[in-house]
Amino acid sequence: MSSEGRLTHVDDRGAARMVDVSEKRVCPREAVASGVLRTTEEVARLLRGEQLPKGDALATARIAGIMAAKRTPDLIPLCHPLSLTGVTVDLHISGSEVHITATVRTTDRTGVEMEALTAVAVAGLALHDMVKAVDPAAVLDAVRVERKVGGKTGLWVRPTAEPSSRSPTAQPSNLIREDR
Questions:
Q1: Residue 4: per-residue pLDDT
Q2: Are residues 101 and 89 in contact, defined by beta-carbon separation less than 8 angstroms?
Q3: Helix-helix angle 113-131:57-70, to 10 degrees
Q4: 42-84 tens-digit pLDDT
Q5: Which neighbouring-strand residues pair with 79?
Q6: Residue 124 · residue 100 · CB < 8 Å
Q7: Which of 16, 142, 150, 158 is exposed most, by the fewest CB atoms within 10 A?
Q8: How far is Cα 124 from Cα 74, in angstroms, rounded to an integer?
């Protein structure tokens, strides 16, 4: 929702629309998203040793995430095509989990949250595809924006304690407005 409490991708009649960003100013923007693939200790061991039947799963997932960020407007309806200046996808194995983090940068008129989320989701899906032969029960979970910076809203950082429920009219308390 926008700061006025309404959805920005819906017109007055309730029809979906692409937001006109022509009046927004071009500025540096960055978004960080994360997610986790929950699997087994055995699969984590195979991932560390690059011993999966399909090959180097982490490298494959990393490339899939980067490619997906670049194709976000083709995958997400009404998403603006942006000139991305950087995409990083990191995968870190911890216990039986693979933590996925994507950082996306641009200098443009709108943010790159969707590109960061898409990078994490597709990296996780590619990783799931790589491990499904040995763990069909693997779960991709907790895909979310961790942080964004740039534009009219400035810096936003995910709160460390997640609220148990969200009011549809609640205002985020972790929004720091900046003139950018």
A1: 58
A2: yes
A3: 150
A4: 999 999 987 888 889 999 999 999 999 999 999 998 999 999 9
A5: none
A6: yes
A7: 16
A8: 19
pLDDT of 119-158, one tens digit each? 999 999 999 999 999 999 999 999 999 999 998 889 999 9
Domains of the chain, with CATH numbers? 27-157 (3.30.70.640)
Apex CA 145: angle with CA 175 and CA 13, to 5°?
A: 75
d(CA 24, CA 98): 37
Bridge-based pairing state of the strands 97-108 and 155-157: unpaired
- The yes-or-no answer on residue 129 being catalytic is yes
| Lateral strand order in the sheet of 139-149 | 84-94, 97-108, 27-38, 139-149, 155-157, 175-176
Quick one: CA dihedral 88, 17, 125, 39, positive or negative? positive
Which residue's entry shows tokens 């942006």? 82
Count how many Cα atoms sit within 13 Å of the Cα of residue 5 in the half-sphere of its side chain.
Answer: 5
Counting every residue written for the chain, the total comes to 180
